[in-house]
Amino acid sequence: MKQRFVMVAVLLTITLLVPVVLLNSSVLPSTANLDNTVVNELLNELSDDWDSIKDKKAAFVPEREGISYEVLDNDGNVLVRSGTGMPVDLGRATSERYTIRDIKVNGEVVGKLLIDNDFTSMMAATQEAYIKRFLIIVLIEAVIISLFLLWVYMNIVRPFGKLKDFAADVASGNLEKPLEMDRGNIFGNFTESFDIMRSELNDAKQKEYEAQRSKMELISQLSHDIKTPVASIKALGELLEAQSTDEKSKERLGSIVAKADNIDVMVSDLFTEALTDLNELSVDLSEQESSILEPIIKDADYMDYVSGDSIEGCIIVCDPLRVVQVINNIISNSYKYADTKIHLESHIEDDCLVVSFTDEGGGVSNDDLPMITKRFRRGENAKGKPGSGLGLAIAYELMGKMEGDLEVANDDKGLRVTLYFKIA
Asked: How many CB atoms lie within 10 A of CB 52?
């Protein structure tokens, strides 16, 4: 870990120092590459001939071995020059980087020698040198930045990408896949903590599953145990009702039988719900004549409320036992909440047999409608009436397992429950 930080620190330091070192090194010479011997000889000649030179005025003289020069007296007057376009004062000569030397006679400065350093060429060479150094800096910086970005990707971006995938797995409930981590990584301890969290969540999930399974098994067992005495109470009530000659007693016994029926339905729902949660509510699909639906509907409709179309003839995919549960739940719900006539409709639509049951109980509110096929959810019209909110939920799940569907909607007069059976 420390070695990686040292490497990053070195790269950043180099990144900062390289341009400073390269740009601060001088690329602009103060003077041209002059031959000092020639310059000294020229100074000596000017000193020796000063008496003949001092009275001249801008006289032209030949260059000395390729050196262009100009001579000024102490008053700044141009005495001789080797070409045109040369400066006429010391200020301009200084700004154009001329080499300036004193002309002495008997130790006294009598004038100035100005030597042309070819400033234009010198600036062009300087500019070229700066461009070369700038390109070198850009190249070095690009390499350093690329190395740094590679380090950032390998040590920061990629680990966070793995962490993102890990979070997606956890969110989807996949707690078995461990989070791969490099303990030497900058986020090593951080990712290790997340993997510990995953492991703890997985353990908690398993414990919750076991607890839920134990609870559902207990409910299943209790439901089964309750159904036996309820059946006995119902049978005894029916027997006493049949033998009784007193109308008041018959009414009370009929009420007992009806309550026993309600208890039996609720216990059956709880039993089915427990099996669903335990993934033991199996569906055995087979191809059946659609005519099997008519006796199932007739058996469930013991109050003779159902009337309407006959079932369209076709071959459907279903589990007859589960179809009984579905239709019993739909009709018993209508008895309980609407207590009206039920209109039956049947037709074939695409690859489905569509069977709908419509009561005249006014339906449910639009807010409750999407929720009544959810577990333990009941509409506002269910207040004060026995039930657990499982009937339609179980019917909806069973239809899904039989490769069909169940839909609920408000009709003009009441609630319409529609079943879709897949045609073989």
From this structure: 8
Specify which residues 228 forms β-bridges with: none
The span from the CA of 32 to the CA of 99, in Å, is 8
Are 389 and 378 in contact by the 8 Å Cβ rule? The answer is yes
Backbone angles phi, psi at 388, to 5 degrees: -115, 0
List residues bridging with 419 in a β-sheet. 355, 406
What does the CA dihedral 358, 362, 366, 367 come to, rounded to 10 degrees?
-110
Residues sharing a CB contact under 8 Å with residue 200, sequence separation 6 or more, in sequence order: none
Please report, to the nearest 10 degrees, the dihedral formed by the alpha carbons of residues 318, 322, 326, 331 taken in order: 110
pLDDT winner (highest mean) among 66-70, 152-156, 360-364, 384-388: 360-364
Q: Model's pTM, two decimal places?
A: 0.43
pLDDT score, position 383: 57
- The answer to whether residues 321 and 299 touch, using CB atoms and an 8 Å cutoff, is no
Residue 59 backbone class (left: φ over 0; alpha: ψ -120 to 50; beta: rest): beta
